[in-house]
């Protein structure tokens, strides 16, 4: 297998997950460059890898001899940094969301195609074992016609979480609990149902975290092309990070994800649970244990010349649901999707 020379842009909180994933991959990759606006963070990350250079300037990374770059920076930087890396001849794997607008996401897709490079987006929870099994069952028809879905997220973010120069801002974060935390719930509902939403009626509010301009609570009804309605709710002012829940219901079956555990019920069979097998790879518990699996899959797909997970067109469809919810809430109307 090809050994990829890689770099990382953004060495903040999430970078510990990448550090551990990179170390676990051993001979598959060589970590060559780390960039962060805080040079101390870049140096600290680089110190974990022999011969790894570091800088506080993206331009220095762009001049390096690399095969792929990971973008782990604030949301508003994803587009410009990913495009710069693609144009420099690097494959790119960026944290979610792919971008803050659909035109920006489309520009990223075009740039990747024009440069002949792969662009992937992190949605690590798709790799949860129970999610994979439920998706296969739903796709096979074992659940029958899908009737509906719901998800709930009740997490805790203190006011101090937003005491930085980009979080809590429509311009830089792009929203609050929906685009930052609950985007994963929306993506899992899309992924499991195996079809696309066609409209959304949404509502957002700022109820408890009044030090921010974006929402700390949201709910919505998404109508999918198969007629199923997905009921969505989220807040990030709860007293703790309660396990997320995502349920898909069909004529012949039901699956309920609670945290990382999946409960599956099929007609004529005893209910059973699919437990997570992946070991945590550092960071906050609510990030889960699946970043490393998606990162490894990304490089194996690159080595095989196959499409990478999650491709940017797919990630853009999830972004469309998020942005549609926001538009619906702000304009108090049903928004058509797709």
Give me a quick take on this structure:
The chain has about 350 residues and is of the alpha/beta class. Helices cover about 35% and strands about 25% of the residues.
Describe the structure.
- This protein is of the alpha/beta class.
- Helices cover 33% and strands 25% of the residues.
- It contains 9 helices and 15 strands.
- It has helices spanning 15-25, 39-46, 58-62, 78-87, 102-115, 129-140, 177-193, 291-304, 312-331; strands at residues 4-9, 29-35, 53-55, 68-71, 91-94, 119-121, 146-154, 197-205, 217-224, 229-235, 245-250, 253-258, 261-266, 272-274, 335-336.
- Strands 14-13-12-11-7-10-9-8-15 form a 9-stranded mixed β-sheet. Strands 3-2-1-4-5-6 form a 6-stranded parallel β-sheet, sandwiched between helices.
- The longest helix has 20 residues, at 312-331.
Rg over alpha carbons: 20 Å
Summarize the main sheet: 9 strands, mixed
Structural class assignment:
alpha/beta
The average pLDDT value, as a whole number, equals 96
- Name the beta content range: 15-25%
Shape: globular
Helical residues, percent: 25-40%
Q: How do the strands of the widest beta sheet line up side by side?
A: 14-13-12-11-7-10-9-8-15
Q: Give the N-to-C terminal Cα separation.
A: 39 Å
């Amino acid at each position: 297998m090809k050994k990829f020379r890689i770099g990382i842009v953004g060495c903040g909180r999430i970078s510990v997950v990448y550090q551990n994933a990179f170390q676990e991959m051993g001979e598959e990759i060589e970590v060559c460059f780390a960039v962060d606006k805080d040079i101390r963070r870049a140096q600290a990350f680089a110190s974990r890898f022999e011969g790894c250079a570091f800088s506080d300037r993206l331009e220095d990374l762009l001049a390096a001899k690399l095969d792929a770059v990971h973008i782990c920076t604030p949301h508003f930087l994803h587009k410009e940094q990913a495009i710069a890396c693609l144009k420099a001849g690097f494959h790119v794997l960026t944290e979610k969301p792919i971008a803050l607008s659909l035109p920006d996401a489309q520009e990223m897709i075009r740039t990747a195609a024009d440069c002949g490079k792969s662009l992937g987006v992190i949605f690590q929870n798709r790799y949860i074992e129970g999610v994979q099994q439920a998706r296969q069952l739903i796709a096979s028809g074992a659940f029958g016609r899908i009737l509906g879905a719901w998800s709930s997220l009740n997490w805790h973010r203190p006011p101090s979480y937003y005491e930085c120069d980009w979080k809590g801002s429509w311009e830089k974060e792009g929203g609050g609990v929906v685009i930052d935390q609950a985007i994963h719930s929306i993506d899992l509902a899309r992924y499991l149902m195996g079809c696309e939403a066609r409209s959304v009626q949404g509502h957002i509010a700022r109820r408890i975290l009044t030090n921010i301009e974006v929402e700390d609570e949201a709910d919505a009804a998404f109508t999918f092309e198969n007629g199923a309605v997905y009921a969505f709710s989220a807040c990030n002012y709860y007293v703790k990070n309660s396990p997320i829940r995502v349920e898909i219901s069909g004529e012949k079956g039901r699956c309920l994800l609670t945290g990382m555990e999946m409960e599956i019920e099929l007609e004529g069979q005893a209910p059973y649970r699919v437990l997570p097998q992946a070991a945590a790879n550092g960071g906050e518990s609510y990030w889960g244990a699946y970043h490393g699996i998606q990162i490894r899959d990304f490089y194996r797909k690159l080595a095989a010349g196959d499409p990478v997970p999650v491709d940017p067109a797919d990630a853009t469809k999830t972004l469309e649901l998020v942005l549609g919810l926001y538009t619906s809430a702000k304009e108090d109307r049903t928004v058509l999707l797709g």
